[in-house]
Write a structure and sequence with these properties.
- The protein is α/β, with parallel strands linked by helices.
- It has two domains: 30-146 and 282-353, Rossmann fold; 149-276 and 361-385, 3-Layer(aba) Sandwich (Rossmann fold), CATH 3.40.50.2300.
- The protein has 14 helices and 16 strands.
- Strands 4-1-5-6-7 form a five-stranded parallel sheet, sandwiched between helices. Strands 9-8-10-11 form a four-stranded parallel sheet, sandwiched between helices. A three-stranded antiparallel sheet has the order 12-15-16.
- Strand 5 (98-101), helix 4 (105-118) and strand 6 form a beta-alpha-beta unit.
- The protein is globular and about 65 Å long.
- Residues 1-24 have low confidence and may be disordered.
């Protein structure tokens, strides 16, 4: 007869073998949206990203493995330490499986470190630094929408080719701004242009007067705005007040969104050359998504909001196809499955975490050219993924063999 202890131990092992996989499979899948709800990037992502996530969950069917899909959200206040604290709590105690959004490059990189520690998936749909899939890449991070390399190469090269060959940068003084200036400056110089200088400004700046005076004094043909959101809007408005464009210099908004154009109005924004990964009026799929989004949010989606929908839906499809929430298995499936949705019809997730897809070069319409609300862009060119995004071999990502 076997000892009672051995029987208990065997029973315990059998119980664990029977229960553990089932419990893991049946635990509700939970998505966390870490966004900016109160500051300079709230129009770009914010509550619109939450709504986009909800739309993706609804379109997927609302359930995974027979349980409702849960979603939580929080404001990172654009502070890396706040982002890290929330992410740690979500992953340690609240059962969050995937975190999406991340409004700044600094918050994204901070949470990426935790993602490696906990071996949890995160998808960056707002932050832009090309370092996210370069020297700082992670096996658990996907970078979805755009990055500073892609924007620099689509906008910067187009402007230099059209005669804008001397540049001065107004740069947001943190990783994102530095990355925009670096990547765009490299393109300008590679295209035969010159960078005459730059000036750094704090995030969420109200008064650009001293910075604009330095840019004006540089006599550069192009003042490159290496910033985003409210900072870009304020810089363009105040440049108009200073008569900078009227005086012969031009502005280049390297990272700009349809929400920025809407806030500025076509009178101020007309003629700007910008790049986006999505525009609501590109095709039938983008128009259908834009119509659904504006009915819920009362604004057309930015490319980040459309990308958040896309990334959430792709993640859910990958979990379903994998039959598990296991991080490595799901990431492998996300790379295997093509990205085909309202955001893009030619997306592929690379091993460095970069989701590559077409980018688009637009010019903002004149007021008389617009046929109605949100009719803001003229399409100049579709830039294929292999021309827009940094080649895999050039990023310095340690994951790339």
């Amino acid at each position: 007869m076997r000892p009672i202890a051995a029987l208990v131990s065997a029973a315990g092992l059998l119980s664990a073998a029977l229960i553990t996989p089932t419990s893991a499979q049946q635990a509700p899948l939970k998505i966390g949206v870490l966004s900016d709800f109160s500051s300079v990037y709230s129009d770009i992502g914010g509550s619109g990203n939450v709504e986009a996530t909800k739309m993706a969950i609804e379109d997927f069917g609302g359930q995974m493995f027979g349980k409702p899909i849960d979603m939580v959200s929080a404001d990172v206040l654009n502070k890396p330490d706040v982002a890290s604290t929330i992410a740690r709590k979500w992953w340690e105690t609240e059962g969050v499986d995937m975190i999406i959004d991340l409004p700044t490059s600094a918050t994204a990189l901070a949470v990426m470190e935790l993602s490696k520690q906990y071996e949890k998936i995160m998808i960056v749909t707002d932050a832009a630094s090309s370092d996210i899939t370069g020297k700082s890449c992670s096996p658990y991070t996907a970078h979805w929408t755009y990055d500073t390399y892609a924007n620099a190469h689509t906008v910067g090269s187009a402007i230099v080719k059209n005669g804008g060959d001397t540049w001065f940068f107004l740069t947001a003084d943190y990783l994102f701004g530095h990355s925009v200036e670096r990547d765009t400056g490299d393109v300008v110089k590679a295209s035969g242009g010159k960078v005459l200088g730059s000036v750094k400004h704090p995030l969420n700046t109200a008064d650009f007067s001293s910075f604009l005076l330095q840019a004006q004094a540089s006599k550069a043909k192009i003042i490159g705005l290496a910033n985003g959101g409210g900072d870009t809007i304020n810089a363009i408005k105040q440049a108009g007040e200073f008569g900078i464009v009227a005086g012969g210099q031009n502005l280049a908004a390297i990272v700009m969104f349809i929400s920025d154009v809407h806030s500025l109005g076509l009178k101020l924004a007309q003629g700007l050359i910008i790049t986006e990964a999505y525009y609501w009026d590109l095709n039938d799929k983008t128009r259908a998504f834009g119509k659904r989004f504006i009915e819920r949010v009362k604004r057309m989606p930015t490319m980040n909001q459309a990308a958040t929908y896309s990334a959430t839906l792709h993640y859910l499809k990958a979990v379903q196809a994998a039959g598990t929430k296991d991080t490595k298995t799901v990431m492998a499936k996300m790379r295997e499955l093509p990205v085909r949705d309202a955001f893009t019809d030619n997306g592929v997730l690379r091993e460095d975490g970069r989701m590559v897809h077409s980018m688009y070069l637009f010019q903002v319409k004149k007021p008389e050219e617009s046929k109605g609300p949100w009719d803001y862009y003229k399409l100049l060119a579709e830039v294929p993924a292999d021309q827009a995004f940094r080649p895999l071999k050039d990023g310095g990502c340690p994951l790339v063999k």
